[in-house]
Design goal:
By secondary structure, the protein is an alpha/beta fold. The chain has two domains: 9-51, no CATH class; 64-206, 3-Layer(aba) Sandwich (Rossmann fold), CATH 3.40.50.300. It is built from four helices and nine strands. Helix 2 (73-86) packs across helix 3 (103-113). Bound molecules: adenosine-5'-diphosphate and magnesium ion. Magnesium ion binds next to helix 3.
Length: 213
Amino acid sequence: MWRPPRSGFLSATSHPDDSFKMEWDLSAQESFSASPRFRVNKKSLRALRLCANPLRGSGLAIPHMNVTIPYTLAEAERIGAAIGAALMPGDVVLLSGDLGAGKTTLARAMLKARGLAGEAPSPTFAIVQPYAPPEVDLAVAHVDLYRIEEEDELIELGLDDYLYDGALLIEWPERLGTQGWPDALSLTISGSGGTRILTAAVPASWGSRWPLR
Ligand SMILES: Nc1ncnc2c1ncn2[C@@H]1O[C@H](COP(=O)(O)OP(=O)(O)O)[C@@H](O)[C@H]1O
Ligand SMILES: [Mg+2]
């Protein structure tokens, strides 16, 4: 059985023939914890790569494209559903925008697309609201960091743990401070009233999956 090293950066490259190459860059200092019984498959490799990423907080730019979409409340459902349907384990979606911008509205539509019945509550007070199968078909943790005041409080939330087999939807990602995920899909909502504008910074890892042009 393969066991992940205790520290370093795992880079996994998938090839069209379904093989992949694994490399560890041991120059990276960041460590990660993983169960010794962790089984290696394509999905878990992706999660490990995200969890142990040494680019975290380094400010290094990851190639991405920017997409700007004006949308109404009715269209929010469709936009959220399209992004929600494309989610994979290991994905982080950052939802930025002022109070009332429409972050929870989009997150709700994503959760609905993953099978959640009824309206997801806003996680403002719970901070982390996890959903798991069978109520959804992909584990998703809906997070609202509005009430986080110190970066230290983030450690207790253990957000990385959700990425082993699920996705994170994070409102108020500004509270992450220097923490972050370079591969995150960053959605910023501006405007007010009936005119909202979604700006998506789509990372390279989302390139072919991004559903809105
Ligand atoms: N595209 C939109 N156009 C008009 N109103 C919207 C749009 N998206 C959301 N809203 C409305 O804005 C209000 C705040 O939305 P919410 O998602 O709770 O904001 P946030 O989570 O950013 O604080 C809600 O009443 C919601 O229905
Ligand atoms: Mg909200």
